[in-house]
Structures
1.
Amino acid sequence: MEHEIIVGIDLGTTNSEIAIVENGKVTIIKDAGHEILPSFVGISDDDEILVGEPAKNQYVLYPEKTIKSIKRKMGEENTVEMAGKSYTPQEISAIILKRLKTISENYLNKPVTKAVITVPAYFSDSQRQATREAGEIAGLEVVRMINEPTAAALSYEAENQEQKHILVYDLGGGTFDVSVVNIEDDVVEVVASHGNNKLGGDDFDQKIAEYIVKHIQEQFSVDIRESRKAMARINRAAETAKRILSDQPFAMIEEEYLHEHQGKQINLSLELAREDYEEMIEDYIDETLEAIHVALNGADLTASDIDEILLVGGSTRTPVISQRLQTEFQKQPRSEINPDLCVAAGAAIQAAIIAGEKISGSAVLVDITPYTYGTSAIGELNGEFYPHMYVPIIHKNSPLPLSKTELFFTMVDNQKIVEVQVFQGEDEDALNNIQIGEFSIEGLSRAPANSPILLKLELDLNGILNVSAIEKNTGLKKSITIDNAISRFEEDEMEQAKQRIQEIFGEKVVETTEETASNKVVVQAKALVEKAERLLDNASAEDKEDIVDMIEAINDALTAKDFAALDEPIEQLSDIIYYLES
Ligand code: AMP
């Protein structure tokens, strides 16, 4: 029987997504190749309604004709102005929902009339009511509204609903929420939640934009904030730089012909180091950690009671966030399900449960690396100087494919060579991990100590690991490729285990190779022939004939080295000998 169609919708402040469960698995429905619909609505020059990317694109130039972040106004009495007309927040949200509905109908080729929509855990009754009304205006019956952290937990835990305390850390573009979610007996519920609905990735962009503005002021003595057009470009460049810094230690911010000032062109070219960026946003991250403790208090729990930490929202790709959470909870936060999509995926799972559809194993399919990869460097281990400190670069359970670059430094002045060792494992002592590759980058420029060397690790869907070392100042590069990295290590691990057993028992482990196995048969056959020949004299004529046939068969097989052909005559000859001797 065909189940009725209920779609799952994440109606977000910055972005929205729509998903369904098909054949037990979640599909995020794409619109012209995009899984994400920016939550922007606008009126074009030709008085047409724009939704998503085109509305977002016109926002900076025509803010009076564009609405963003309508979710913040849901449940309020006030209306918003767009191109001279007033709209209720429900109406603007309905325009976004209508677009999502059409996207799903185009994909499914059927009408879609029912939806599960997610809302923040802190949404009041009136905000929830307004969301339901927006659905109705768009022609969607909202069969259930679920809390966003509940949806995130469902996307990770649809299959495994044992008792658990889950912390959902959700940092989007403009809002931050942290929730403690309890799973028990198939019931997933938010027990405490806290946040700041004015904190998000946009603030991070803002910090970078301020840094660029200051740089332009210093270098060109121009207050670039006066140019709306230049600021639009700066804001975009800031966001791009921020994303780059999630994977790389430096980002180049380059904007040619950004502005003209007194007949002079301003070309922007500025490098930003991750370290400096992390300092800019440190107060924001501190604030999120304080909020976590408020939520934990509210749930009457401490950090050690938390079984899982789930990362939700695009901004959680900022690596310092995982690092801080790891330090706080002594647990690696999970982020294998795309943090932009896991709320929509959870909404689709809830929708499928309501529609009575079966959900298989893990409903969200992701390719992840089961191992951590890194290198070794000089550092401190247990408070002492140690030359083989492990520095993880790609963390286990990260979604594939991925590329991560980390920064290292030369040790001495005029250093000519850097030896790079690549390891797989988790131990902070690199020597306890499995070495999977090694190479050196030679002919470095004669630079002073502490010159930057970038190490880039790229792991693809087939488990092929590319490792490159790059001298930052010259671009000198050396790479290796480790084929089939993921499965190869299992063999290596086996070898290591064998070695360990050997050391424990102090003896050489004898390997059963094909050769040793056939040797055994040959020895057995020869011994049997000798014995049979000794018994020939006392055998009856009939037995004699059988024995001679068997011996001949064995000798033929031995001469032909056809060891498989030995089995049968050996067995028969053994039987005759047994009979003669008894
Ligand atoms: P959301 O509201 O959950 O869609 O999150 C959007 C926010 O995530 C925006 O501020 C994006 O700039 C931010 N974001 C997306 N990708 C990354 C990334 N790779 N690193 C840091 N922030 C990101």
Note: Residues 506-514 have pLDDT under 50 and may be disordered.
2.
Amino acid sequence: MSYKISLIRGDGIGPEITEATLQVIEATGLPIEWEEVVVGEEAKARFGHPFPNPSLEILKRNRVALKGPLIVHKGSDPVTMKHGEETIAHPSINSALRRELGCFANVRPVKTFPGLPTKYPPIDIVIIREVTEDLYSGLEREIEEGVAEAIKRTTRKACERISRFAFEYSKKHRRKRVTLGHKANVLSLTDGLFLNTARGVAPAFPEIRFDDLMIDALCFQLVNNPVPFDVLLLSNQYGDILSDLCAGLVGSLGLAPGANFGEECSFFEASHGAAPDIAGKNIANPLALILSASLMLKHLGETDLGVTMENAVAQLLRKKKGLTPDLGGSSTTKEMALELARIIEGGTACGS
Ligand code: NAD
């Protein structure tokens, strides 16, 4: 069976790490027909809009996509999408993609790979981040010169949907504990709503321990002793910030994969950004996107091949061969991909 999957190569280091990822997927032998979708800087240059409607249609039709990172310029205008008479403004191209595709859950596993030097003991944490509302709703305005505000929109519907998702995910993946990070002592209506809604969902999953921590206390505990944490349930902004913090715990942003899930569509992308400072130098670490692709294969039901890719990454890191500079090596993006493809084709990284 051949899969038809949308492909967004992305901006900055996007095209380089995407090419590396395609090479590694190809080594698994899984037949995939890629349909290229133009979004971001290239779409702006070619069509005058970062997210043209035909691109959205392809993404909706194929339902599953692999996505490179996209640049969001500081202070840039919202991304406006026209739906008939209605115009919807999204704060960035990334939130436009998530919301237009109905993806409400951003899942970011952060796991230590043996053999890689880190400042922390081994951790295995999954961040589940709500991505449709909160401070990133796009409800921001200047009231008068020198006074601006952003609205932290929070609805019970979205809180319940992400809480249920987090518990169901935890049950499916045999996770034992869900910890919600919040600031309900200060933001009693918004974060209070999130916390109380999750508390209402938790009893339906008695096998999973539910607890909560103030977001500042959670940050302290994560850098002090992250080992006991399992699944972190977070609103949009806290999830964004803690994703990078947790990537730091395992040694590199280049090791943090991600997935976005909705009722119908899903897309898979690294947690990190477009890294314009190293774009075009062939030194970007492609592992986060490769691990995101491994999540994608598992989502498609190709679990063994997904595990094969993950095992190949683990083997490469253990052998410390083919590592990019961020991991202390001197290999290029292309050399790393080649080494991974070799491991997979050599059959020493089999799944299950
Ligand atoms: P970034 O994650 O792109 O880079 C932060 C630092 O980490 C940089 O020094 C970079 O060189 C390094 N880095 C990141 N990924 C790496 C990799 N794979 N290999 C080696 N080093 C890597 O964050 P930023 O600089 O704040 O953002 C750059 C652009 O990316 C911005 O326009 C931002 O809006 C965008 N961004 C996009 C996404 C996304 O598409 N999902 C996510 C975050 C940021």
Note: The longest strand covers residues 103-111.
3.
Amino acid sequence: MALIIKNNVSLKKYNTFGIDVNASAFAKMEHIENIHEALEASKGNPFLILGGGSNVLFTKDYEGFVFINQILGKGILSETEDEIVVWAHSGENWHEFVLWTIQNGAFGLENLSLIPGSVGAAPMQNIGAYGTEIKDWCLKIEAIDCKTKELVIFNHVDCHFGYRESVFKNVFKNKYVITKVFFKLHKASKWTPNTNYGDIQKVLLEQGIENPNPKDISNAVIQIRSSKLPNPKELGNAGSFFKNPVIDINLFETLKSKFPQIPNYPDKNGVKVPAGWLIEFCGFKGMKSGNTGSHEKQALVIVNYSNATGREIFEYSQKIIEIVKDTFAIDLEREVNII
Ligand code: FAD
Ligand code: EPU
């Protein structure tokens, strides 16, 4: 079907913060050909590809084209005795895709269950949770160059995945539309459970499960996430608003002498400290400020209590950045894409 472009469309239901801004032009893409039409129609104008809108904050109306990616399709490409290569078009829902991989005996993504959004946005910030990231499983990516409209293959090494980073989030931002993502996963013969992070082991033991299968792990992750993170359908949010900062060892030692209880994790570039702890320490956890505030169970998550504007949320996040900086001399970086 040809692309149908509408004017002045509210984006409220297309972003999980629930921000009510308008896009001056708007269309849903359901087939790969629609991407070519979209790039042609928006030529010379600003445009934005959106999947689930779960990692964006709109601070104003979007004066340009917003294209919602609903391009579906997934399958098995090849298998060996131990491994299986699967693919999905970028408009597939991430969590449904993860469940499908498990049903099809392709394991590895189970710790990434229940992350909102689309398959196509997942490599953008190298989504991660509960001890694994996309970069551990992504084989290659197909994308369309927005200028030449040619199909380009990004092998794993070309993506420059890092903590909540990839080339698509920085140097190539808005330069490519990701169309298809391939994953090399494990068959049962090669799979080992990854239960080291957080409460996974505890939840499994509470359920009396000693030798978990991938579905058990997926269920445990779903249970933990549902108990901590607000459901965007009930309370607008975009997950962690900030990244966990990695600080240099000297600053860490200074902070440790002042705040002996500061949690910390080793990192190849220094020491990682949980932003949630820093923000909670500064008194923001559960705070309500106008229509926005910090979630009562997870200080790293900023929420929209009712009809907050994106500007209001942005300014609240600025206040957090300033107070954390004054208290710990640490610069918090936003994880969410500000638009
Ligand atoms: P969108 O918000 O639609 O887009 C994000 C960015 O990617 C935009 O810049 C957009 O232009 C670009 N983009 C989208 N699709 C494409 C494409 N096909 N080609 C090129 N660019 C594209 N993230 C984690 O890493 N770990 C978590 O545990 C996690 N938990 C979350 C929990 C909650 C409750 C919420 C609301 C969010 C959470 N997130 C988490 C953040 C979010 O789910 C991920 O970043 C997700 O990958 C975003 O997908 P999306 O389709 O909604 O992206
Ligand atoms: N903490 C607090 N107070 C809080 C929240 C956290 O003190 O209010 C401290 C605790 O010490 C806790 C630690 O932070 O042990 C880690 O908390 P949690 O396990 O909840 O993880 P996180 O670091 O806050 C990260 C990701 C999440 C991901 C979880 C699980 C980032 C920015 N966030 O959160 O990803 O789901 O780990 O792996 O790395 C997202 O990116 O949107 C996201 C939700």
Note: Residues 231 and 237 are 8 Å apart (CA to CA).
